[in-house]
Amino acid sequence: MTDAAPPENETADPAPRPRRGRPPAFDREEALTAATRLFWERGYEATSVTDLTTAMGIRPGSLYAAFGDKRTLFEEVVRRYGHSPVGAFVGVALAEETCARAAFTRILREAAAIYPDPSHPAGCLVITAATNVSPQDAGVQAHLRELRNRNRQVFADRLRTAQLDGELPPGADPEALAGYLATVIQGMSQQARDGATAEDLARVAELALRAWP
């Protein structure tokens, strides 16, 4: 038995309009991982919103709804990177090693192994991601510069404590030594991006350690 046709003075119900549903869900951690790799490889300035949404597998509206604008997403990426094994190794070494020389020896040697590791983009995201930006993005550059300067200050504080504890001779200059170590680490990051191998950087690390007072 079939449905009867509607009378001539009646019309069939119109086709229902498609409803606007919620945007499809996505894995936030996977999206952040993709964004991290892109910022790390290309830098902040060269990474567009289109690049990000393509890599993250989401629409622009979903990016803005979930993460805010490009800069806010980048700042979240940097925070997340700083808590990852690749980004946190400096702080972990300083926290775990009771001797300052052992801590900085570990930092330099781990940097030599981590920065050229092919499992992720070369170098350090915080060091390289915003070295050259346009004036409107100068705040991003300043944010990373502040993080790098804060790390240098942490180095200096640890070395001053080491001097007070007798680990460094009275004539040592903790500020200068902190600056030297920070410069070597930043240089190792850039060398890794330029193709230096773990073996190349290990030699640099051992040579730098000879400057220890």
TrEMBL record:
<keyword id="KW-0804">Transcription</keyword>
<dbReference type="Pfam" id="PF00440">
    <property type="entry name" value="TetR_N"/>
</dbReference>
<dbReference type="InterPro" id="IPR009057">
    <property type="entry name" value="Homeodomain-like_sf"/>
</dbReference>
<protein>
    <submittedName>
        <fullName>TetR/AcrR family transcriptional regulator</fullName>
    </submittedName>
</protein>
<keyword id="KW-0238">DNA-binding</keyword>
<dbReference type="InterPro" id="IPR011075">
    <property type="entry name" value="TetR_C"/>
</dbReference>
<keyword id="KW-0805">Transcription regulation</keyword>
<feature type="region of interest" description="Disordered">
    <location>
        <begin position="1"/>
        <end position="26"/>
    </location>
</feature>
<dbReference type="InterPro" id="IPR001647">
    <property type="entry name" value="HTH_TetR"/>
</dbReference>
<dbReference type="Pfam" id="PF16925">
    <property type="entry name" value="TetR_C_13"/>
</dbReference>
<feature type="DNA-binding region" description="H-T-H motif">
    <location>
        <begin position="48"/>
        <end position="67"/>
    </location>
</feature>
<dbReference type="InterPro" id="IPR036271">
    <property type="entry name" value="Tet_transcr_reg_TetR-rel_C_sf"/>
</dbReference>
<feature type="domain" description="HTH tetR-type">
    <location>
        <begin position="25"/>
        <end position="85"/>
    </location>
</feature>
